[in-house]
Every structure is written in C-alpha cells, then in structure tokens.
Write a structure and sequence with these properties.
By secondary structure, the protein is α/β, with parallel strands linked by helices. The protein contains 6 helices and 5 strands.
C-alpha cells in the first residue's frame, strides 16, 4: 500500500492545501494529512485539535484520507504512518530552496522520499500567513479557504476583537481617512 504523508502547520488550511490533498489522493492508496506544531513559527491561531477537526471536515469527500495531529519530528510521523513518501506542495520557485533542504534532511534521517506537487496558478499566491492577516483585519477570505475554515476564522477573530478591545466596530462614523485595510 502506497501512503503519502502531507505535513504542514495548516494554520489555517486553505484551498491550495486542499488541491494538493486531492491530487495526492490520485497518486497514493492513502494520504495522511498531518497537522504539525511548528516550533519555528510563532504561536498558532488554531490549536492542533481545532486544526484536526477542520481538516477532517474539509477532506471528508476525498477517499483514502486520514488526519493526524502531532508534535514531533516529521520523520517520526512518516515512520509511524508507514509513509511511502512525503508530499509537499510548491507555490513558486521561491518555495523550492527551503523544501529541497527539508527533503534532503528527511531522506538522510529516514530514507523516505519527498514528492513535490506544484499548485495550480489559481492558488499559487495563497499562504496561510496572508489568510490570517486578511481575516484578522476583517477581510473576506472565503475565496481562499474552505467554507468551514472561513467560518472558524470569523469566530476566532470576532472573539479576539472582543477580548482585545478592538474598537474598529465601535459605531463611530467619523472619517479618519483609514479604510481599515492593511496591505499584505
């Protein structure tokens, strides 16, 4: 049985990620999508359980997909799930250098190969960091993420506004010249 392991922080999972899972499912008997805690990234917007729950919901239509969430080395996950290969998506040439370095390290540590799948051009500009930023400032991210993820982003940032004392929606109609948009 050929098992592809698609790892990522998926914070949040977006349509580019979904495309990679769908395409990988045609190459492997099983695709294990692993939501990982990435110690190199600042604190997560969604905890691992929240990410796992969203991943299960947005991939339920794809046969042969299993979701796991872990906080360990990727090569340990690959061994634990019996991965034939690690699957990585590439948006642009700029992704390749870092991905190649990780692929070589993972191969050295475990012998597991990495398969690169380029995203289609309609998703090549989407990054979780940009989705979080747009959602944080109240922008519509529904074109970039599955519906359930968009709903969870709205809930998350509405809660943060209430907790952070964000007064962008305080009803003041005064024109201060700021349209509330941040450049990404």
């Amino acid at each position: 049985m050929k098992v592809g392991l698609f790892p990522g922080s998926f914070d949040p999972f977006h349509n580019g990620h979904l495309e990679i899972v769908e395409r990988a499912s045609r190459l492997f008997d099983e695709v294990v999508v692993a939501a990982l805690r990435n110690p190199q990234k600042s604190s997560a917007l969604f905890d691992l359980d929240e990410r796992k729950s969203m991943l299960e919901a947005v991939t339920e239509h794809i046969p042969g997909v299993r979701i796991v969430s872990v906080s360990t080395l990727l090569v340990n996950v690959a061994r634990d799930v019996g991965a034939t290969a690690i699957v990585r998506g590439l948006r642009a040439v700029s992704d390749f250098e870092a991905e190649m370095q990780m692929a070589q390290m993972n191969h050295h540590l475990s012998g597991v190969e990495t398969i690169f799948i380029p995203t289609s051009s309609k998703y090549s500009f989407i990054a979780s960091k940009l989705v979080r930023e747009v959602a944080h400032f109240g922008g519509d991210v529904s074109a970039f993420v599955p519906k359930i993820v968009a709903e969870q982003l709205v809930k998350k940032f509405d809660g943060k506004k209430a907790n952070d004392g964000d007064d962008r929606n305080d009803g003041d109609d005064g024109d201060d010249g700021d349209d509330g948009e941040e450049e990404t």
